[in-house]
Amino acid sequence: MSRDKKVSQEKPKEIKPSQEGLTVKKDENFSEWFTQIIQKTELADLRYNVKGFLVFQPWSVLSMEKMYYYLEKVLQKKGHKPYFFPTVIPESNLKKESSHIGGFTPEVFWVTHGGDKELEEKLALRPTSETAFYQMFSLWIRSYNDLPFKTYQRANVFRHETKATRPFLRSREFHWIETHCAHESEEDAFRQVKEDMNTTKEVLHDIFGLPFIFFERPSWDKFPGASRTFAADVLNPDGKVIQQPSTHMLSQNFSKAFDVKFKDKDGKEKLAWITCYGPAVSRIFASVIIVHGDDKGLKFPFEIAPLQVAIVPINKDDDKLIKKSKELKKEIEELGLSVEVDLSEKRPGEKFNYWEMKGVPIRIDLGLKDLENKKITIFRRDTDKKEVVPEKDAIKTIEKISKEFTKNLIQKADKIFEGRIKDSENLSGIKKIIENNGIARISFCSTEKAGTSCAAKIEKETGAFVRGTKFDEDKKLSTNSKCAICSKKANHIVYVARAY
Amino acid sequence: MSRDKKVSQEKPKEIKPSQEGLTVKKDENFSEWFTQIIQKTELADLRYNVKGFLVFQPWSVLSMEKMYYYLEKVLQKKGHKPYFFPTVIPESNLKKESSHIGGFTPEVFWVTHGGDKELEEKLALRPTSETAFYQMFSLWIRSYNDLPFKTYQRANVFRHETKATRPFLRSREFHWIETHCAHESEEDAFRQVKEDMNTTKEVLHDIFGLPFIFFERPSWDKFPGASRTFAADVLNPDGKVIQQPSTHMLSQNFSKAFDVKFKDKDGKEKLAWITCYGPAVSRIFASVIIVHGDDKGLKFPFEIAPLQVAIVPINKDDDKLIKKSKELKKEIEELGLSVEVDLSEKRPGEKFNYWEMKGVPIRIDLGLKDLENKKITIFRRDTDKKEVVPEKDAIKTIEKISKEFTKNLIQKADKIFEGRIKDSENLSGIKKIIENNGIARISFCSTEKAGTSCAAKIEKETGAFVRGTKFDEDKKLSTNSKCAICSKKANHIVYVARAY
């Protein structure tokens, strides 16, 4: 076996967290912007001494914990029950579903020893947990009364990526949720796929503020072991899409491999239909940073901000200001929001820049003059504007901003996203859209094997990929539409984009 | 290297979750009671096909998530910031502190391959994360202004236990929190140890209802790499104590190994003083089950119950009862409590037993007669009594019970615990206390090496161990006290107990 020396990792330049802002613009040098924002706002330290692994710092962890909270709340509401499965999966489990193991083995980290003893069977650090869940499903599911059987777990998964890693976007360990569900019928399973699509909309769009398209992937781009794969693509400013939650119709493939059977109403033993869904929280966090951040720094949607309100007393040694700051803090906390009074040694201007870079939604600048005039100055990071309000209206105003904030972020993000999607009818048109960092919508011959040569042509000419069809959209195709590449009859509307 | 075939694991008998209650009594056959309760109440499935690893089921996960919530809340309030460190630690890190690696290497799971490639350096699945955190501390800490530097992470840790494993109590993967803090001085570090002790009291005792003694361990029983080790011992009905959170004075041992230095007020570069603390949530959960459970099943402290209120409409097909159940559910939810209406196919009696076994704190039995009389029957699992109250007082009563509930559990547990601690003055007395499943308090010569022969004598004669001294208690020792074993001058009051 050859030694693992080839893999490149984006070399972490040692950028110190500092009061200095970002030195590049997001739209001009996105890659550098992303590297700077991670390090300058202290989201993660990239200097850990194992390739592709990072140390998540408090500013990302606090936000990701809130992301977990919203995801789990919605999943539990929809009847998913939480489990913790072991981090390790025996090799023999992974081998049970042949296409699954084919897809994952090259990326598996293997545990081979316990102390100085070789293990009887080597253990995979789970790259995903189908082969752990479904062997237990076969023990737990007996009858149609047990179905749908809806589970999830919050867990870390591990992939020995052979591509270059990028912090949050593609790391060798990531933090995610995976749901696994067993159903009576194909229809029930597909209903679950649609439910997953709605969950993605309710949480990723409506709370995290991420615009996306939920695609069905072409047959050549399915999850190993799935019969159909669906996934949400989010767009980066550099025109590359990132795959966010994917949901898979595993049909009866894994039920066969793991003997997941149930006795149906008619008394017959049947194989269960299985679906799974995987929101990768640490990767979704990357999209939150990328979609909302700007040239001044981070912008957090209100609900998932690590800190929601910062209070800056302009003169940090003035007793009256400190007293007022603490009073305000208490009142704001009573709204259920997180607040901090900044009593650090920095100058006020530095503090303003610091909290803006950190993406705190609301900042209250408290000066002596305001105090005399019974006014409060509120800076909001959604619009980057200051509002001066009478002291007595402060709490009411903060409550109002807290409700508008994420909506404003969503509106802006949606507009940018929609503006990037353009129709095209031929290869040169697609090329132009891709070069302008957009997503091309085209008529296309086939998302089955038949379409691969057209997909290959697109990839060769533009560096972009057929990402798939959008749910229910093929209906809009007129009967005489032709494939933008081969001019044969078009059966689908597909989207073409560059990707990570 | 020899193959790992020796390790025994408590063989999971296949006990089916069932309406039938427990068939043994906790005080008569504790070991069997523990195995039954885990399986019959569906806390964990022990049939996962890797030795020493288990599948945590919803009923334990929901409660453990609440335990995490309270622990993290208190830690954050005390200034600890959350991190996520990688699950893997390079071998070279583990080797940097010589006594640490000596203590942990025999128990480390090693990752040696990524895909089919051998890794350049083998990676440990973290058995604990000192050697990951402190290399980053050396990058993050610069000056006394950065201190105290207080961190924590929620994480899974892995130990290839060579002793027999027991679910929750000693598994090969467990769910925990570890805190790591750097300080300016030994005094500050010791202040942290006392803070950790208070955290243990505030959370483990006052919320989870666990009585414990916080010991300083004898010098021969320290954490590998620590200069002093403190730990909370909780008592099982079989007279064995379980070590719950431990906190360690690592002094400057790891600072030296990992170069954790800071510039002090006097301009001099100094080594930081380090402490760490590790509440193992999945193990604490075991104590919650063991301390509060009874012959009918689980009893959860109110705050960490997976479900707090169950409503059982006696006739589940009666529209009026269903309607009233749902109204009550809504009102109780408005108190911030979790509620379920049981509309399953079971008979009412079965439902009552089921919820009692599951340890739900409050059950509302809703019958037609009660409905007519505008009464509500409330069963509370703390006292195992029913209360019939006017319908209009239902919510008020539930609120009242929710506030008394855990206090009642604590009171009962404290009484049992205190009753088990007995003073003794000689070996035969110790033996008697240990045989009656108690903890013996004795005068003792030395917790340094000098005392080992007395400790060995105790172990040989009684099977029990010197667990340590209790904070500040040695002061109570009279000047002419003698060691209960060797009769030389006693310097300590120590506690002796059997242990897992």
Overview in brief:
2 copies of one chain form a homodimer. Chain A is built from 14 helices and 23 strands.
β-strand number of chain A: 23
What kind of sheet is the major sheet of chain A?
5 strands, mixed, barrel
For this entry, what is the oligomeric state of its chains? homodimer
Number of domains of chain A: 3
CATH topology of the largest domain in chain A: BirA Bifunctional Protein, domain 2
SS-derived structural category of chain A: alpha+beta
**Number of discrete helical segments of chain A:** 14
Strand line-up across the major sheet of chain A: 9-10-11-23-22
Low-confidence stretches of chain A: 1-12
Shape of chain A: globular
Q: Report the average pLDDT across residues of chain A.
A: 94
Q: Can you walk me through this structure?
A:
The structure is a homodimer of 500-residue chains. The first copy, chain A, contains 14 helices and 23 strands. In chain A, the strands form 5 sheets. Chain A has a 5-stranded mixed β-barrel with strand order 9-10-11-23-22. A 5-stranded mixed β-sheet of chain A has the order 16-15-17-18-19, sandwiched between helices. A 3-stranded antiparallel β-sheet of chain A has the order 4-6-5. With 500 residues, chain A is an alpha+beta fold. The first copy, chain A, is globular, with a radius of gyration of 25 Å. Chain A has 3 domains: 30-292, Bira Bifunctional Protein, Domain 2 (BirA Bifunctional Protein, domain 2, 2-Layer Sandwich), CATH 3.30.930.10; 302-404, 3-Layer(aba) Sandwich (Rossmann fold); 421-499, 2-Layer Sandwich (Translation Initiation Factor IF3). Chains A and B meet through strand 2, helix 2, strand 3, strand 4 and strand 5 of A and strand 2, helix 2, strand 3, strand 4 and strand 5 of B. Strand 5 of chain A pairs antiparallel with strand 5 (109-114) of chain B, so a sheet runs across the interface.
